[in-house]
Amino acid sequence: MQAVLFAAGKSTRTYPLTLTRPKPLLPIANKTVLEHQLNAMPEGVREVILVVGYKQEMIVDQYGDRFGSIDLTYVTQEEQKGTGHALLQCAGKISGPFLAMNGDDIYGQGDLERLATVERGVLAQTVEDPSRFGVFVTDDDHKVLDVVEKPTKPISNLANMGAYKFQQDIFETLEATEESERGEIEITSAILTQAKQHVVTALTAENEWLSIGYPWDVITASKWIMDNRLESENEGQIEPGAHIHGNVNIGKGTLIRSGVVIDGPVIIGEDCNIGPNAWIRPYSVIGHGCKVGQGSEIKGSVLFGSTKVPHLSYIGDSVLGENVNIGCGTITANFRHDGGNHRSMVKGELVDTGLRKFGAIVADDVHTGINTSIYPGRKLWPHVSTLPGEAVTKDKTE
After folding, report:
1. Residue 292: beta bridge partners?
2. DSSP secondary-structure letter at 196?
3. I need a surface site. Which of 150, 190, 311, 324 has the fewest CB within 10 A?
4. 341 and 374 fall within a common domain
5. Residues 341 and 353: beta-carbon distance below 8 Å
6. Cα(19)–Cα(378) distance, rounded to whole angstroms?
7. Annotation marks residue 311 as catalytic
8. Is 375 strand, coil or helix?
9. 316 and 198 co-located in one domain
10. Catalytic residue, candidates 198, 311, 342, 383
11. Beta strands 266-268 and 284-286, pairing class
C-alpha cells in the first residue's frame, strides 16, 4: 500500500519556528514530526509520497529517498491551493487504495492500521470544542453524512483528524470539485461528494492525535511523548555527584557534570554538555549538541539542537530554536499573577494557549544579552538579539 503526506504548506501559525524550517521538521521529543509519522505507518505501507513545497529542499536533504523499509517519493505542489489540490499532484503516481494524511499531525499506528482496513474512511476524534475544527456528522453505523467546517452551533463533536483512506476514484471526484471561497480545492468537499455515492466510514481514534497547530504545541506534544513512550536509557557519561531521578533518556557523547540534578521525565540528546550545578526539571527536552551550564535551570522546555544556556539563567515552559545563545541571567517569565491562561499573538490576534504555565518562543540563532527578561507568551524572531537588561514585553521581530 502507498500513503500520501501533505507537507507543502508554509504554516504561518507556527511562526517564528517555521520561518527557518517546514513544519514537518519541527522536533517533538528530539524526533521530527515527519519521523514520528513515518514510524507510525502501518506495516503494509511500502511507499510514502510526500507532497512538498515550502523549504522542500530541507526535507529532501534530511530524509532522501528511503526511511527504513519505506520508499520516499517527492511531489512538488507549486501553489498551495488546499489539500485536495495537493492530492491531485499525486495522480498517476498511485495505484490501488491508499492512505492520505496531514504532514503536521502525529497519529497512532494502531489507528492508521484500522483505517487501512476499510474501503473508504476518515479518522475522527471526539473533542470538547467542535467550533475549532471541521467535524463529521455520522449515522449510528458510523457512516459519514456531512462535513461541516468549524460549526457555530452544536452539530457534532467528531473532529476531522486529517487522515483518510481513499480509492482511485477520489482523483475523478477532486477533478470535479470546485474551488472554495478561499480559492482552494478542499479535500473535505470531495469526501462529502463520495459519501453521497459510497460508504465512507468515520473511525473514532483510539490512540493519540498530536496536532501541531501553534508553536507551543511543540511543548505539549513532547510532554505527551514523554508520558507515554519514553524509556530510560543512558548512553552518555555521568560524573560523580550528579543526581538523576525518574525516567531519563541520555544520548551518546553527552556529559553530565558534577552537581547536576535531573528530574525526569527528561530527554537529553547526543553530544550535550550539562552542568556543573544545573537543574533539568520534568518534561524538558534538550536537543543534540546543546550546552546547559553553571546555575542554569530548564523547566518543561524544549531546546532544539546546538543551543546554549551557559550560566545563571531560567528557561521555563519555553521553546528555544536551533543555535540559540542565552546570555547570563536571562529569565523567561511563565506565570500570570492572576493564575489565568496565557495568550500569545498569532497572525495579529491574541490566542488563548490554554496553558497556565507558558514562557517564550525563541526562534533559531537568537542571542539574548545578559539579564534579559522575557514576558510570558512572547516570541523572538530568527537572528534577533536583546540588549543587556532588556525586558521583552511584546513579540520581537527585528
Report:
1. 274, 309
2. T
3. 150
4. yes
5. yes
6. 16
7. yes
8. coil
9. no
10. 311
11. parallel
Helix H segments across the chain?
Answer: 33-39, 56-63, 83-88, 109-117, 170-175, 187-195, 217-228
State the chain's maximal CA–CA distance in angstroms. Answer: 68
Reduced to 3 states (helix: H, G, I; strand: E, B; else coil), residue 52 is strand
The total of structural domains in the chain comes to 2
Q: Are residues 155 and 16 in the same domain?
A: yes
DSSP string, 236-256: SEE-TT-EEESSEEE-TT-EE
Q: Among residues of the chain, what percentage have pLDDT more than 90?
A: 91
Range 112-141 average pLDDT: 91
The predicted model scores a pTM of 0.95
Give yes or no for residue 150 having a pLDDT over 90.
no
User: Per residue in 239-261, pLDDT tens?
Assistant: 999 999 999 999 999 999 999 99
* Residue showing cell 523547566: 299
Q: Looking at residues 320-348, what average pLDDT do you find?
A: 95
Please, are residues 11 and 23 in contact by the beta-carbon 8 Å criterion? Answer: yes
**Alpha carbon distance 66, 117 (integer Å):** 25
Domain containing residue 157 = 2-211
Q: Tell me whether strands 361-362 and 284-286 are parallel, antiparallel or unpaired.
A: unpaired
Average pLDDT in the chain? 95
